[in-house]
Amino acid sequence: MASDRVNQIAAHLNYPKGMLQGQVAIITGAGQGIGAEIARLFANEGARVVVADIDEKKSASVADAINKSGGKAIAVAGDVTNPDYATTLVKKTAEFGNGKIHIIVNNAGYTWDGVIHKTTDKQWQTIVDLHTGAPFRLVRAAAPYFRVKDGEPRNIINISSTSGLHGNAGQANYAVGKAGITGLTKTIAKEWGPSYGVRANTIAFGFILTRLTAAKEEGAFVTTPDGEKVALGIPGAQKKAKDGDKGNEYPDIPLRRPGTATEAASAVLAIASPLSSYISGQTISVTGGRNI
């Protein structure tokens, strides 16, 4: 049995047109930023991509761009915190993928910061559910497409953060949500790896240039399901204090710079690809050396 499994894996190490050729991937939060880059890179490697995002226009735009460049993608807009969305997303993905789903990237998320003694129950529950409950529901809904023995690769990648590994002042809710997703990942690897060969890994990002790390004064925000606006980003004064004096920016990052969305997405592609076929249950830090 073990030798048969090794032979099946070896057969998938040589894709004729791309590392993800013939695979079907769901990427949440793919309407912009890192998620959109993951979708683009996956499509470039031959995957049929489902762009999942709460913003219908943005998700459609990403899917359209992929299709125009010769890839294959559809947009399935919806709120990952809505319990019914996972079922809809899985159903439409399976239809698009001719009855198969190979990859899930749980990337959707945002921050709603506050020091512990001022964090409301709503802030806490919204962020914890977004970063742990929503990925769990999607994985559970997709279980029939992963708990299969057809010899094809199956892969779940959950996005975490250094806040989940080390904690972060002002982000108790986010830190708990991002720490929790690592526990879910390891459990998937232990439950679905032995019989079905499913790989599950977590990628923890450090300082990546996105709307979550831009200056708060730039005015980016998200709207919660009940209509409340949540400002995104880091206050200018706080960013300046962290980045240090001019000429010594990002002193806590050995590479002395933040990462780009493309660099972050490339790490996800690397773990999804057959180049990482023996990596499972791990948390990979993508930080430019930060926190070592």
TrEMBL record:
InterPro entries reported for this sequence: KR_dom, NAD(P)-bd_dom_sf, Sc_DH/Rdtase_CS, SDR_fam
Entry's family note: Belongs to the short-chain dehydrogenases/reductases (SDR) family.
Keywords annotated in UniProt: NADP, Oxidoreductase
Biological-process GO terms, alphabetical: fatty acid biosynthetic process
Pfam families associated with the record: adh_short (PF00106), adh_short_C2 (PF13561)
Domain Ketoreductase: 23-198
Superkingdom per UniProt: Eukaryota
Keyword set includes Oxidoreductase: yes
Molecular function in Gene Ontology: oxidoreductase activity, acting on the CH-OH group of donors, NAD or NADP as acceptor; quinone binding
Protein name: 3-oxoacyl-reductase
Keyword NADP among UniProt keywords: yes
Transmembrane segments: none
